Amino acid sequence: MKVYGSSFIYMPAFSMKPGTDPSLRAYYALADSSSNLTMLFANPEFLRSVGKFWKARGIHAKRLSTGLFLVSLALGLCDEVTAYGFWPFSVGLDKQPISHHYYDNILPYKWFHAMPEEFIQLWHLHKSGTLRMRVGHCLM
């Protein structure tokens, strides 16, 4: 974990019931190490406020994506934000199939997240200079 320096780690302890136990185990494991990482747990009120904010801007989903929650958090914590991986289609610019998760190849349920709506709002923030969006292959 030392390669991440003094980064933040977001854990979904209080946003989803199944995430509570593994999040707390990760927190205690990190606390026992000599890491400079900071564990973040989203306050449920923050999650509700972010949901209301984006709903008022046209994102109507059963649940916002974790990525949009994290971009919202980053905009409040960081001077510069670059978002990567918010492509709302099942094929990339290179016409190859892509999933919406970095950790699996399962496409999200269409009724659960509103990926196209999220992408449009992030693209507006990109055009206004509030954040940078990277589409296509990651160059890092």
TrEMBL record:
List where in the cell it is found: Golgi apparatus membrane
Pathway(s) it belongs to: Protein modification; protein glycosylation
Cite the entry's keywords alphabetically: Glycoprotein, Glycosyltransferase, Golgi apparatus, Membrane, Signal-anchor, Transferase, Transmembrane, Transmembrane helix
- Which InterPro entries does the annotation name? Glyco_trans_29, Glycosyltr_29_Sialyltrsf, GT29-like_sf
Annotated membrane topology: Single-pass type II membrane protein
**Glycoprotein found in the keyword field:** yes
What family classification does the UniProt entry report for this protein? Belongs to the glycosyltransferase 29 family.
Its protein name is Alpha-N-acetylneuraminide alpha-2,8-sialyltransferase
**What is the species listed in this Swiss-Prot or TrEMBL entry?**
Xenoophorus captivus
